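Our consortium's second objective concerns turning raw sequence data into structural hypotheses that experimental partners can test. To show how far this objective has progressed, the report includes one record in full. It was chosen at random from the queue rather than selected for favorable results. The single chain below, 201 residues long, was entered without modification.
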Amino acid sequence: MAPIEQYLMTDRSAEIALARSAAPDSVSRDAEVLVLTPRGYETAVKGGNGFVCLVERSWSDGSDDPEFWNPKARAPLCLNAPAVRSYLPLTRKRTELALAGRSKAQIFEALSAAVNQKQLPAPEPGAMCFMMSKDGHLNDRDGHWRPHLMFFAPLTAPAAWGAGLPGSPILALDSPEEHLTIFLVPVARWSDGTPGPQGDH
């Protein structure tokens, strides 16, 4: 892991704006906003609509991701209330472990143990988030990729959602350690209403 300073944004207002850009203004303007500090995520703006927007860092990626410690990664997302209750605790736990200097292997061992011991919740029905910011940087391979929605489910065969099948717009990512499958559904426009890229995933 690089020094923690490389993962922080020095301009708090810029991180708030980036977090809000994850979703259309009609959703994000009344959402709670979290910012990353050396102590973990802290509330920067109180919300009133049940949504929470934040900017995830690279340690929220899968255990096999070669950019797991990329300090340039900035992934804005805006979670609905079921995801706030059942996915946000995973992000907070990953962040706590990363900031404590744990290795990638130690992080996933701890996450798996916490899930197995029911210290972390299973995904709630309806848990989802917006990832529609064209200003994010998910990784050095894909940049901001495409505007999309993500849906969180207990570990599930992707084919059960039609994910990854020929012609299907749905993709899936598995995190066996967290007993979690994330389904990604690309959408046509960025959160500011401008057209997103078209074509294959």
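The partners drew two points from this record. Strands lie at 32-37, 40-45, 52-56, 75-79, 128-131, 148-154, 171-175, 180-186. The chain has a mean pLDDT of 96. Both points have been shared with the crystallography group to help prioritize constructs.
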